[in-house]
Amino acid sequence: SPKVDKKVFNTKIPIFGICYGMQIICEQLNGKVKKTNKREFGKAYIRALKKSALFKDNIKSNSKTQVWMSHGDEVVKVPTGFEIIARSDNNIAAIAHEKKKIYGLQFHPEVIHTLKGKQLIRNFILDIAKIKQDWKINDFLKDQVSLIKNKVGKNKVICGLSGGVDSSVVAALINKAIGNQLTCIFVDHGFLRKNEAVEVSKIFKSKFGKNFIKINASNIFLKKLKNISDPER
Question: What is the pTM of this model?
């Protein structure tokens, strides 16, 4: 299994290990990890055992909270200097070395099913790692628009548009930067969800007008894929 360069643990930079991250911290710092008899997947409840900077203003000692677990291995022994700060019914759920600012969670704080996960991440980023909140979406948009303008100049751009999040954001950004120099091409390959091609065309035709081109290529795709049922192929 992948390992971390041990020098990382001596950098004096705060570390936050999630799921496998917590296990690797324990394994490499002379704790112990083994295959669990009770694999946890899905909603679980953890109980906070003591105060921690990670739990500040969020999870009180001896209180229970819902989290999302997904693991088949478990930490059975924490390294020297670490404390167990939370447990689930079956496993060690959270560990901390407050002095070195190394923390580990067996559960996933980044998903909505972990009800207080966002605050845990916030506590680590702002209070423990002392990272400043100086990134703003408006600055990002301004920078990207400027970057696109400078790169494209007076040239024209073709954007392959699927109607999904990624290509739609790209199209919106490029349009903001160069307007009519952009042409979006949407290929209906015949494998979209019901009415999706109509919806995508309607939305983007109203936005880009004549600079939006829809191509119905479903016959080409279906012909090429005749008798093929394996999705990987």
Answer: 0.63
